[in-house]
C-alpha cells in the first residue's frame, strides 16, 4: 500500500473516531480496494456492531436508480426527456402546469409541490401525523400528500430539490412497465450489476446484517427512525446498500455495458444537471463524461 493510501486510511480512521461516525466506508483507487472499515452499531439496543458487509440505508442516494430506470425506458423508445407529465400518468393533478416534462422532474426544476419540502421543513415525523407511515406502502399512497396543491413556480424557472417529482417518475416507471417500482429496479439495475445484498426492504421485515437508523436527542438519549420514514422505500429514496454492492453499481455504470449498452448520450443527459441560481446564472454538474 502506498504512503498516500495509508494516509487516506489513517485520516478516515481518525476522523471517524473524532465525530463518532456510525456506518461503513469503502475506498477504491482504480480497481484496488485501498480502505474498508466499519464503525458503530447496526443495532444499538443489542450492541451489534456494523461490519464491512452491513446493509445501510442510503436515503435519497438511490434517486439515481430512479433516474437510470427512466433513462432505460427512454433508450427503449418508450419515453422521451420532453414527454409531458400529463401524457404519462392517468392521475389527475388539477393545479399542475401542463408543460411539466420528464426532464423537469429529473432535474428538480418542475416547480410541482413537494410532499416534504426540505427548504422549509426539517422534521420528517410531522408528515405522518395525518398520514401514518405504516400506510405508505406504495408510490400511489404519496399522491394525496401533494397532488392537489399549487405549483411552487413555473417549470424550468429554477432548481428546487423535490421528492415528489421522483415519486411521479417512479409511478411513470410502473405505468409503462406494469411492474411495481422496486421490482423493476431489482430486475433491471440491481441484478444486472450483481448487487445481491442490496434492495428495498420493509422496515418491519429487515433482513440480517441491516443497520437500523437512529435519531439522537439533545439529552443523549436515542431512538430508531422507524416512525420517521415510510415503511418501505421507493422512487424517492430508501434502499439499503452494502459498500461492496455500491462498488459493483459504479463499475456497472461506468462500463456502460450492463445498464446502457448503446447510447452514451443518454448517460450524459442523466448525470448533467442544470442548476439555476437566484441571480439567474446557470451552471452544470456532470458526474460522468
Task: List descriptors.
289 residues, alpha+beta, two-stranded antiparallel sheet, two-stranded antiparallel ribbon, 8 helices, 14% strand, disordered C terminus
Topology:
Blueprint: H1 3-18, E1 23-29, E2 32-39, E3 41-43, E4 48-49, E5 56-57, H2 63-75, H3 85-88, H4 102-106, H5 163-177, H6 181-190, E6 214-216, E7 222-224, E8 240-241, H7 243-255, H8 264-271, E9 272-276, E10 282-286
Antiparallel strand pairs: 1-2, 3-4, 5-8, 6-7, 9-10
Helix pairs in contact: 2-5, 2-6
* Count of DSSP H/I helices: 8
Order of helices and strands: HEEEEEHHHHHEEEHHEE
**What best-fitting shape do the alpha-carbon axes yield?**
globular
Q: Which strand order spans the largest sheet, edge to edge or round the barrel?
A: 1-2
Oligomer: single chain
Q: How many β-strand stretches?
A: 10
**Which structural class do you get from the secondary structure elements?**
alpha+beta
Radius of gyration: 20 Å
Mean pLDDT: 88
* Residues in β-strands, percent: 5-15%
- Main β-sheet description: 2 strands, antiparallel
In percent, how helical is the residue content?
25-40%
* Unreliable sequence segments: 273-289
Distance between the termini: 29 Å
Amino acid at each position: 500500500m502506498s504512503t498516500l493510501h495509508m494516509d487516506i486510511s489513517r485520516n478516515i480512521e481518525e476522523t471517524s473516531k473524532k465525530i463518532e461516525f456510525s456506518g461503513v466506508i469503502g475506498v477504491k483507487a482504480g480497481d484496488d480496494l485501498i480502505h474498508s472499515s466499519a464503525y458503530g452499531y447496526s443495532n444499538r439496543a443489542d450492541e451489534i456492531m456494523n461490519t464491512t458487509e452491513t446493509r445501510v440505508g442510503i436515503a435519497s442516494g438511490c434517486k439515481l436508480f430512479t433516474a437510470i430506470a427512466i433513462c432505460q425506458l427512454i433508450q427503449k423508445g418508450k419515453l422521451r426527456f420532453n414527454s409531458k407529465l400529463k401524457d404519462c400518468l392517468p392521475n389527475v393533478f388539477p393545479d399542475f402546469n401542463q408543460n411539466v416534462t420528464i426532464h423537469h422532474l429529473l432535474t428538480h426544476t418542475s416547480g410541482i409541490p413537494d410532499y416534504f419540502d426540505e427548504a422549509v421543513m426539517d422534521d420528517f415525523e410531522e408528515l405522518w401525523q395525518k398520514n401514518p407511515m405504516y400506510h405508505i406502502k406504495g408510490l400511489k399512497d404519496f399522491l394525496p400528500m401533494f397532488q392537489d396543491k399549487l405549483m411552487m413556480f413555473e417549470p424550468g424557472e429554477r432548481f428546487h430539490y423535490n421528492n415528489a417529482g421522483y415519486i411521479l417518475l417512479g409511478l411513470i416507471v410502473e405505468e409503462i412497465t406494469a411492474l411495481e417500482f422496486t421490482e423493476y429496479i431489482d430486475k433491471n439495475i440491481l441484478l444486472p450489476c450483481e448487487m445481491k445484498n442490496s434492495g428495498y426492504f420493509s422496515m418491519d421485515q429487515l433482513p440480517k446484517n441491516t443497520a437500523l437508523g437512529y435519531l439522537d436527542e439533545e439529552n443523549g438519549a436515542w431512538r430508531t427512525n422507524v416512525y420517521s420514514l415510510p415503511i418501505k422505500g421507493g422512487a424517492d429514496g430508501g434502499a439499503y446498500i452494502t459498500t461492496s454492492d455500491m462498488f459493483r453499481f459504479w463499475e456497472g455504470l461506468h462500463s456502460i455495458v450492463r445498464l446502457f449498452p448503446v447510447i452514451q448520450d443518454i448517460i450524459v443527459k442523466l448525470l448533467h444537471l442544470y442548476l439555476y441560481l437566484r441571480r439567474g446564472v446557470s451552471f452544470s454538474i456532470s458526474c460522468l463524461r
